[in-house]
Amino acid sequence: MNPEFRRNLWLELSTHRLLAAPLVIALITALIVAASPRDALDNLSRAAAAGFAAMVLLWGTQLAGASVVEEARDRTWDAQRMSAIGPWTMTWGKLLGAPAFAWYGGLILLLIFLATGNQEATPVFRIAATLIGSAILLHAFTLNASVLAARKGSATRGSGVLIFVLLLFAVIMPGMAIMDNVEKPVLWWGMTLQRIDLLLGTSATFAAWSLLGAYRSMCNELEIRTTPWAIPAFILFAALYSAGYAIRGETNDPQAVFGVLACGVVISAGFSYVLLFAEKSGATAWQRLRIRVDGAQWRRALQELPLWLVALATGLAFALGATFASAGSGKGSFLYDIGLAPIAVMLFATRDAAIFQFFALARQPRRVEAATGFYLVLLYGILPGLLKAMGADFLGQLILPRLFQNPALATAIMLVQAGIAIGLAYWRWKKTHAPDSEMHHAPIPNTT
Question: Which tens digit of pLDDT belongs to each residue from 264-281?
Answer without folding.
Answer: 999 999 999 999 998 887
